[in-house]
Structure formats: structure tokens, C-alpha cells
Amino acid sequence: MSLALKHQAGLAFLHSHPAPGWQGMSRDDISAEEMLASRAKAATGLPLLGLTLGTDGAWSARFWNKVAPRTYQRNWCSTVRVVGESFRITYNDLLVPKFNFKEELSRTVSAWGEKEQHQLMRLKIGIVGAGSVGSIIAESLARIGISHIKLIDFDSVEKVNLDRILHTRHLDAVLQRAKVEVLARELKKSATARPFTVDPLEYSISEEEGFRAALDCDVLFSCVDRPWARNILNFAAYSHLIPVIDGGIRTESKKSGNGLLRADWRSHVVGPSRICLECLGQYKSEDVSTERDGYFDDPKYIEGLPKSHFIKHNENVFAFSLSVAALEIQQFLALCLTMPGETIRKPQLYHFVNDQTVFDERTCNPNCIFPAWTALGDHAPITITGKHNIAAEARLKRAQYQKSLRYWVARLIGR
Predict the structure, then answer these.
(1) b/e for 376-407, b at 16 or more Cβ within 10 A?
(2) Distance of CA 172 to the CA centre of its chain
(3) Beta carbons within 10 angstroms of residue 44's beta carbon
(4) pLDDT-derived band at 415, boundaries 50, 70, 90
(5) CA distance 85 to 129
(6) What's residue 341's pLDDT?
(7) If we measure between CA atoms, which residue out of 377, 349, 343 comes closest to residue 362?
(8) Is 70 helix (H, G, I), strand (E, B) or coil?
């Protein structure tokens, strides 16, 4: 208890049962945890967490919340997630029931079996960025049976998006629809899980609302190209123990403008026991500060940057985005499916021009701060989110346009 007080943490009581799967509780179990619940609450101010390990590695869990003087109520958790070199999740079947497979999923189930499909379908997955890569990943997840997807992106569809964002149409750009709105509309048509839930969230991950929505996920896909967003996802992977699957594209044309000099794309999983995004070189900490101060949205500032600066790149060609999305889906499946050898899928870098795949063997730098924040959650000594002016302006612009559109439609029909 002294250790818990020192770290402002709660207490967990762990024991094992000689049976597989999610475990119930005997009378002795209940009595023991009820007794410990009052002591844990008195010492730490937090509810006791009870955990039971089954013979197959499955964990079950419950919190004991104080509901009256000397009275504690057991509240079962719906899932328990184990994160590190491997990723395993145990479901409370009473709170998160298994799905009945439809004919549409017969080929998918035949690939890895019913047990693995039940695990996949009940995951709650967040996709941060509904652009070219994010839209393809979302479509893939909906078709393999994922039942709950959160889409986090503040931006609107523009005409320049139509050559690379899946499902966008000319009318979506004309009507300035939110990217998440358009994608959610189409995912409902593609989804093979029944019931299926998709949450279109018109926020940046850099805003508190978007960040909190992301924390309510089992796995996050990083489909962003800005340093602040990547820094936040990096933070979530370590401090909140949510695996983040990230990818990126880098292209360079010949100086003449005719022909491709290089095209590289990569994918990787971020979290404890794995290299973080900053150490992998996916962003620089100084660029996070620059973006938070608003400079990357200042045309005059951008004009003064060299042509090679990432902010001036326009690399999301649909064909390349398709490849990145495929690699991220492969990383996701390798993370979630039980496969022989339990091998950790290393970060992959693919060079398109010379058709070469390189696997990154690096680990985090010795002075990297993110491993030290592992599992600290909201106790981590950092404020990661903030005001995002461009996101707020995008929402306001859409709202004003929709209001104006409704007005003129009403005028045209004579109301």
C-alpha cells in the first residue's frame, strides 16, 4: 500500500483459477475481495481492482466501488487488455457477447477460424485521419467484420481529395461534407458485422474531445501526417497502453518533374516493448512545438520553408496509399491473431523504386521519455492536447455553410 500511495496509484488483487476463459467468483473470492476493498479505498482513495487468471492466459476483472457506508459493489469489466510484446484481449461474454456469423463472413472466417474471428469482431477500433490511407483501412476493417469503428478527423472533403479518398464524390466536396460523415455513411453499407456501429467524430486527436474518444478504443490506426497528432498517438500507446498502428509515405520526383526518383512507405506497431514514433523518425519534437504554435498553418511561414520540408509534400497518391493501408492491416492482423512462434512483426520500410523491404531492428533511444510514461495514463506529467484553431474553423465553416444551404433550400421550396 505504501508503494501505491507513493505513485498515487490504486491496488490490484490477483489470483488464479484452474479453468480457462473469463472467470466467475466463488463465495470465498467475493469475501476476500470485499474485505480488501475497504482497505484499498481507505489507503488510496481508489476502488480495488480484482483480477483472475485462467489456465489459458485469459484475465477477468472487476472494480469494487463504494456505494454506501461499509458497502462495496462489484462492477465487472467488459474486457481486459494485455499489451507488450504480444497483444491479447479477454472479453466478458455477458457484457460483450459473441456475434453470430453471417454468410458474408464465411470466407473471412475460413482463413483463421471462428475463435480468432470472435476476438477480432469485438474490438473497438479508432482510425485517426479519414484521408486516403484511413478511408481504405476503414473499408477493410468493416468488411472483415469489425463491429465498432471510431473515425476521428476534423476536415472537410475538397475537390483535391477526390483522386485519393475512398468513397468521396463530387457532391461531397460541393456540399463541404465532413470526411468522417462521408466515410461513416459508406461503411454502414460495407459492414459485414450485425450490429455495426460507426462513430464519426469531427475533431482533431489534438483536441481533448478527439483524444478522449481515442482512449475508448482497443487499437488505434494512425493515418495522420502531422507531428502533433503523431506525438499524441505515441503518448497514448505508452501511457494508456493502446497499441497504435502507424504508417507513412515519402516520395520524391526527379528535378525535371518527369518521373519518380523515389517512393518509400512504412508501417509499424507502437507501444511498450516496441520502438516509439519519435525514435523511429516519424516526427521531431521541435516540429510538435512549431505546429502547436500555429506556424504550420501560416502560409507565410510555410513559404519560407525549404522544398524538402515535409509540410510541403503531397504524397498521398491513391496507389501508394493503398499499399500503406495494406501494410498497416497486415501489422494489425499480426498483432491480433494467434500465429506460430508469436513473432513480433518488426517495423517495415518498403522501397518502391528498387522493390526492397527493410525491417527495422532499432529500439528507443536511451534518453527517450515515452517508456518512462508507460501505464501512467492521466498521471503522466504532460498536457498533450490543446486548442486546435484550424479544426475549430473547419467545423464552424461547415456549420455556417449548412445553415446557409438550409435557408436557400427553404426559400426555393417556398417555406
Answers:
(1) beeebeeebbeebeebeebeeebeeeeeeeee
(2) 26
(3) 17
(4) low
(5) 26
(6) 65
(7) 349
(8) coil
Strand pairing class (219-222; 244-253): parallel
**185 Cβ partners below 8 Å, 6+ apart?**
167
Find residue 87's DSSP bridge partners: 83
Please name each of the domains of the chain with its CATH number: 2-77 (no CATH), 103-396 (3.40.50.720)
DSSP H or E segment with residue 239: helix 227-239
What is the reported pLDDT for 315? 63
In tens, the pLDDT along 267-320 reads 999 999 899 999 999 999 999 999 999 988 888 888 888 877 788 776 678 999
pLDDT at residue 343 in the model: 64
b/e map of 184-218 (b: 16 or more CB within 10 Å)? bebbeeebbbeebebebbbbbbbbeebbebbeebb
Q: Look up cell 490543446; give the residue.
A: 386
- Cα separation, 106 vs 227, whole angstroms: 40
- pLDDT tens by residue, 72-107: 999 999 999 998 877 999 999 999 999 988 899 999
